[in-house]
Amino acid sequence: EAKKHPPVLEIPEAVKTISAPGWLIYTGIPTPTSHGLGLELNAPLLIASNLKQQQEEMVELVLQPKDASDWVNYRGEGGLNIVLAYNGSSPNFIGKVLRVRKIRKKQSEGPSASAVALSEHERLVWKDVGHLLSAPTKDVANHAYAQFVLCPLLGSHHVDAGVRVLVTKEFLELIDNGVLLERPSWRVDNGGINTLLDSAILMSDHSMFPPHVCLLFSHPMTIKAVPEEEVCISVEIKPKCGFLPTSRFIREENAAKRRISRFRLHQILKFHQKKISQISEYDPLDMFSGSKGRVVKSVKDLFLTPQNNFRVFLNGRLVFGSLGGEVDDTNTQIAEAFEDTLKVFFKADDDGGMHIPEFLQLVAGAVSESGILDRLLQVQKLDAIDIEGAIHAYYDVMSQPCAVCKELQPLATDGFHSIPFDQSLKIVRDFLISLTAKDLSLMISFRPTPKGNSQSPLNGGTIYLESLNRSFDYKASFIDLDMKPLEKMPYYYKLDQEIVSCYTRMMKTVNHPEKSESLHQDESSAIEDKSHS
Predict the structure, then answer these.
(1) H helices within 182-283, ranges in order?
(2) d(C-alpha 444, C-alpha 457), whole Å
(3) 17 to each of 22, 64, 156, 201, 313, how far by Cα in Å?
(4) Cβ within 8 Å of residue 225, ≥6 positions away
(5) Which positions carry the signal peptide feature in this UniProt record (predicted)?
């Protein structure tokens, strides 16, 4: 009967200690524990207050210098943020990570570095998203973008926008110095934490399952986190763009874009620029195909050539892949070390058996069964006319003469700039959203299904591995959801042309070997794909 009508447990005012101040409601099925009259809550607690109220309450938390030692746990970083995991005992932060904004060394530190959240033209593009318009800084704007733009599109179960927490300058300075030696040297050279900001984003640690929470019927009633005994392994994947454009705006000399995925084309440019030592066999078209066989192939290809598109964590600790830079290929030594890690996760005896194929099958099974990429693909396809079409809408929005039209034949530009202004705004807005969807990461976490637990995670499911005769719970989430800046659209166009031009020149060399020497002597403009890095 309880399974048909799950109970709702309202937790009194005295025990508002988990996640955020406010009423907590648990909608799962409680099970007796050994903690007296306690109930162990094996699913995430749901906060029964609106999101805005929750954020207002969480922002009242202030991280002080005394808290810094609990956050000096480097998890990784991208171009815009450093991610730190919590290793303290406060119920507010157990199972959380802190995303802190970075600043480049060439960029002037100070309020001006982030004071203007949106430019004048960006305010036109995002005019229908009130929370974005009211954001005081870029950091707050990125948070609102994830919450109010991407969450409805990608699904609330799979998007964690996080909540803002206040931080002091001294706290930021301490953690900046504390993780210095753990960061890749080239990242350190580029910049560090912006110590003049007053807030950071607190998010769930998607490389782990939420800790068990125990509700104790004592006086007063209390909640406490139960130490996690199970092993959790997580994989972070950058799926990249999963479709081929068909836009009529793609010029004939760029027709390769209609046949070959953007990722594969970009690999050729990176190889020519010596940014990678070998070209990956991974093709996003396999990952997004819906075919189980092709999905398995795509996961294997990512494992063999991970670069910065495939990483694995064991209980939140990186065990495969790189925190910075790129790992071009998986050699025998790396594979053997990872095999030892998998024995811990699968709790396998040292029988000499190989568990990497089982792990890759587990990952591919979660990708296929979750259907999470279907929704992502629809968001990516908001880019309906490709950058070769969207760039013209960009110049209309900016009220500038179109720099691209100057380079094209007059007949080739006919009708590009005759559409209504609101339509140009929509084209640019949709393109920027799709760009985030093409560059985000997918985090999938696994754990052995707990005995006696028939409930799957809200944002996942259960995979059965016949070879092991065991079931594994999984949960899937999207991360790295930063808004792409409007002013970089000319850069995106230039990079696109560089990518397809490199492929075209390579094909001419293949067909005419005598021209190969000139290809290697022809230096590209070495465009840095900062959105990828």
Answers:
(1) 185-190, 262-272
(2) 12
(3) 9, 19, 23, 19, 28
(4) 91, 94, 95, 211, 212, 213, 214
(5) none
- Can you say whether the dihedral through the CA atoms of 251, 257, 259, 265 is positive or negative? positive
**Sequence letter at residue 521:** Q
* Closest by CA position to 237, among listed 284, 297, 289: 284
User: Consecutive sets of 10 residues in the chain, 533 residues long: mean pLDDT of each?
Assistant: 45 37 36 35 38 50 93 87 91 90 70 68 95 88 94 92 92 94 88 91 86 47 49 94 96 95 97 92 97 97 94 90 70 88 80 84 95 96 97 96 84 73 97 97 92 70 89 93 95 97 88 47 38 37
Whether residue 6 contacts residue 27, with contact meaning beta carbons closer than 8 Å, is answered with yes
Measured CA to CA, the distance from residue 416 to residue 403 in angstroms comes to 13
Residues in the chain: 533
157 and 475 Cβ atoms separated by less than 8 Å:
no
What are the CA-CA distances from residue 86 to residues 41, 73, 127, 314, 444 (Å)? 21, 7, 37, 16, 20
